[in-house]
From TrEMBL:
Belongs to the peptidase S9A family. It comes from Salpingoeca rosetta (strain ATCC 50818 / BSB-021). Residues 4-129 form the Peptidase S9A N-terminal domain. Transmembrane segments: none annotated. SUPFAM superfamilies: Peptidase/esterase 'gauge' domain. This is Peptidase S9A N-terminal domain-containing protein. It holds the Pfam family Peptidase_S9_N.
Length: 176
């Protein structure tokens, strides 16, 4: 991902052994690799999956080593970060960026889908750090599925490459 803001380009890259990606800033007038400055280093604990640029913020869609998706906000003027706090029951799932067409906006829109909830759309205000639900996809009324009777847990299984594979498991809240 390469995005432009002000007099800089922001690059999400795996250069220099950043297997889980890192964020670099480069001057717009000479964005060649020797001029890149690390803004957010690579981490063994999280992987950057996607990003979206706003005038004053870079929004990073990340996943922790434990499999939890989360959103990190990088304030471009201060190079400080904070995470958008999602409800606990929505941390086993997928976060997707929604249409955010206004570069100067202070709000970011995204959705969260879990094994128990098809889609919830959120808006997050970058200035006030307030999160609110815009839309919750309703389950088909003709089905007998009641998500309140289940919990979603994280399990890990070893792979042939000596790495653990994350498996979301949905089970009845009170199994026999």
């Amino acid at each position: 991902m390469r995005q432009h803001a002000g007099d800089s380009f922001y690059v999400v890259t795996d250069a220099d052994g950043a297997d889980n990606y890192k964020v670099c800033r480069a001057p717009a007038n000479n964005p060649t690799k020797p001029n890149w400055i690390d803004v957010l280093p690579s981490s063994d604990e999280v992987i950057i999956e996607d990003g979206e640029m706003f005038h004053n913020h870079l929004i990073l869609f990340q996943r922790s080593k434990q499999g939890d998706p989360f959103i990190r906000v990088l304030a471009l003027d201060t190079n400080t970060t904070h995470d958008i706090q999602l409800p606990e029951d929505e941390r086993v799932g997928v976060i997707t960026s929604l249409a955010n067409p206004n570069f100067d906006d202070t709000r970011v829109r995204f959705s969260v889908s879990t094994p128990l909830q098809p889609r919830i759309e959120y808006t997050y205000d970058l200035a006030s750090r307030r999160l609110w639900e815009e839309y919750r996809e309703q389950l088909d009324a003709t089905t007998a599925f009641d998500p309140s009777l289940f919990v979603c847990e994280r399990l890990w299984a070893p792979s042939r490459e000596d790495a653990n594979v994350f498996i979301p498991m949905t089970v009845g809240e009170d199994p026999l």
